[in-house]
Amino acid sequence: MYRIDRTYVKNLLPARDPYGHKGTFGKVLCICGSVGYTGAPIFASRAAVRTGSGLVFLAVPESIWQVAAVKSDEAMPFPLPDRDGKLHGCFAQIKSRADACDAVLYGCGLGRSDALDEMVRDVLTLRQPLVLDADGINALSAHMDVLQRRGGITVLTPHEGEFLRVGGDLSRGRIDGAADFAVKYGVYLVLKGHETLVAAPDGRLAVNTTGNSGMAKGGSGDVLAGMIVSLLGQRMDAFDACCAAVYLHGRAGDLAAADKGERGMTPTDLLENIPYALKETES
Predict the structure, then answer these.
(1) How far apart are CA 261 and CA 120, in angstroms?
(2) What is the chain's mean pLDDT, rounded?
(3) Nearest-angstrom CA–CA distance, 133 and 219
(4) What distance in Å separates the CA atoms of residue 193 and residue 78, rounded to the nearest whole number?
């Protein structure tokens, strides 16, 4: 069991090429959002920008595209076909965009529908490293066989409720449950909660040491998902990317709590503290 602390993460983060350009630092695609859940895509895409991605593309339902466009300065939102405020019949457009990217995030604020449950099967055919969060995980529950057959890197970021929904077992505790699931399905599992766990398909396990109760607010998980896809897009090893992201996410939360207190801090405060967490860790 690895202990994810500052020293551990400092040795994981890739050096920043002083002669690099936008493409050097990774292009990522975030597929997020629905009517009623317009914050999730913004938190995820902004987190990817803050974590160092060169280019961040944000795919949202056409119904909320104008909202996303107004809220996005660095990330580049674009509309996809939708029905009743949720993505519908648009995998061809998703694949076209994904083919030009280094990593993909699917799920934050997508909502639930039969079409989205089916679309996750198509998304699992993408060759890029893939992060499934929130409703992307919920959609998996009927398609776990497809997950097992996927050849590429897959990261799942469930809280305990979502973990149980896709067949996870916590009867012997979080550590055994996370380890068994990651090996069985060939995925990198980030089991969120107090002392977030990272489990790899080869049996490696790590436990995080940062974070606080002020992060237990809607939107914090979207921030984490965006950080993970950013580091994957920067071509980090998947296990290392997950470990670094959960540490930096928690550290950003600790910096926010020190400034504003755990009760009043928000996911926006997490976003604002990601650069400081990175700077502190790399120094």
Answers:
(1) 38
(2) 97
(3) 12
(4) 32
Q: How far apart are CA 67 and CA 33, in angstroms?
A: 11
Query: Are 244 and 236 spatial neighbours (Cβ–Cβ below 8 Å)?
Result: yes
SS3 at position 268: helix
Q: Which residues contact 155 (CB under 8 A, 6 or more apart)?
A: 129, 130, 131, 132, 187, 188, 189, 190, 228, 232, 238, 241, 242
Q: Which two tokens stand for residue 78?
A: 């674009």
Beta-carbon contacts of residue 201 (< 8 Å; ≥ 6 apart): 182, 183, 185, 186, 187, 188
Which of the 8 DSSP states describes residue 14? Answer: P
Tell me the mean pLDDT in the region 223-236.
98
Residues 90-101 pLDDT 10s: 999 999 999 999
Reading the block at residue 43, the tokens are 């938190």
Q: Which residues contact 2 (CB under 8 A, 6 or more apart)?
A: 8, 204, 205, 206, 207, 243
Asked if 198 and 4 touch (Cβ cutoff 8 Å), the reply is yes
SS3 89: coil
* Tokens coding 225: 């998902």
Give Cβ neighbours of residue 137 (< 8 Å, ≥ 6 apart): 107, 156, 157, 158, 162, 165, 166
10 Å Cβ neighbour count for 22? 10
pLDDT tens digits, one per residue of 167-205: 999 999 999 999 999 999 999 999 999 999 999 999 999
d(CA 49, CA 201) in angstroms, rounded, equals 28
Q: How many CB atoms lie within 10 A of CB 238?
A: 22
- Give the residues across from 189 on adjacent strands: 156, 199
For residue range 67-106, list pLDDT tens digits in order: 999 999 999 999 999 999 999 999 999 999 999 999 999 9
